[in-house]
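dumping this here before i forget
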Amino acid sequence: MRSLALVLFVAGTLPMAFVRPIIGLLLWMMFSYLNPHRLTWGFAVDFPWVFITAGATLLALTAHPGERQAPPMKPIVVLMTLFLGWVTLSTFQAAVPDAAFTRYEQFVKMMAMAYVTLMLVIDRQRLDWVIWTIVASFGFWGFKGGLFTLLTGGNYHVMGPESSFFTDNNIFALIMCMTLPLMRYVQLQVQHRWLRLGLWLLMGLTAVSVVGTYSRGGLLALAVTATMLVWKSRRRVMLILVAPVAALALASFMPPQYFQRIHTIDNYQHDASAQGRIESWKFATHVALAHPLVGGGMEVWSSHDMWRRYGPEGAVPGRAIHSIFFEVLGEQGFVGLALFLALLLAGYLGLGGVRRRARAGPAEAWWLADLASMMQVSLVGYAAAGSLLPTPYIDFLYQLLALVAVLQVMVARVEQVAESKSNDKAATRRLSRQSSQAPGRPGSRTGRPSAGGHRLPNW
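structure:
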């Protein structure tokens, strides 16, 4: 029944994408983030929904030039392109060619959809549709995971949807930390009281779902995200009052085995998982030192031979590199890491620029400042959790980076409109003054001179 319902839904909405390509992008996001097919049975589970929606979007994009804009050549877009080019170069030099090209193909597809976002999101309405789709998609799993944690007393680990890019409990925690600030942005914008309360509930359950993953990196990321959320958010008083109480209540609710798991952070020298991470960082560093320009290529960590050559003594081979920074270092070399860091920094600073410019503009542009602030929190949450996770190539990150350029274009338009209005008002004032001072008009200071050179009085 679920499979049939999903098929009917897609059959009814996908043709609309050929008229409005933005609908195709939203469908692609839904299948990539919500993964509704993972909640069905039968053929629908493994049907290539993501490929079909992406293909339909690309076809519609070419057929309707009026529905798109050229990708804005902002610094962050240039850096995205340079990073893609560098990954391409390193892939052709990869130590594990087959695995590298498979992973590279996935990366190119997600980057292509990031460029599609740059072309299709051309106004606030479309941007709101994208943000709502992201919040609703990931929010479903945050709501489900938080409710599961409360109903089971926190005795089981929360996982993401099966066969998705965030199935792993650690990556699930990362995604939820990145989504929480976007939930807050949506809550700041809505006017309906019950909808605001519902978003409070969603944010709370999403935070609970992060705790329910038992991910130590996720817990650290949640603490960083919550702190940044309070700092960057408008109307922060409620967050300051609610957050400590909610944290204490949740801590008293979780079972003893949860705290045993968390306490291993203090004793990382005796924790096999923590030691494995450190060994993978050493391996990535040695690979980068041996291949400083292009690194070992994607999936270099899967080569047992490379581990024997560059891994620390006694390390278990084939272990993934659990850090976005060390993974990029090992796979793309020092140049690739510099581009990746520049990309994250350009995203954060670019959003800061949007925030300042929007705050200095008219009141109707302040929503841009709210969104820029919350996206900054998402990037900080990604960096905090990603420092312990192998997630440098997830599509959610590059969608957010693409939206940075979109916001920069929108705030520039707001400034142009404000400047145009200001110029119009100034021109109107000048015309008014010139009209009031015109010779022979009532209110002018000088009369029209007579033929004999004598000045006539003003009446």
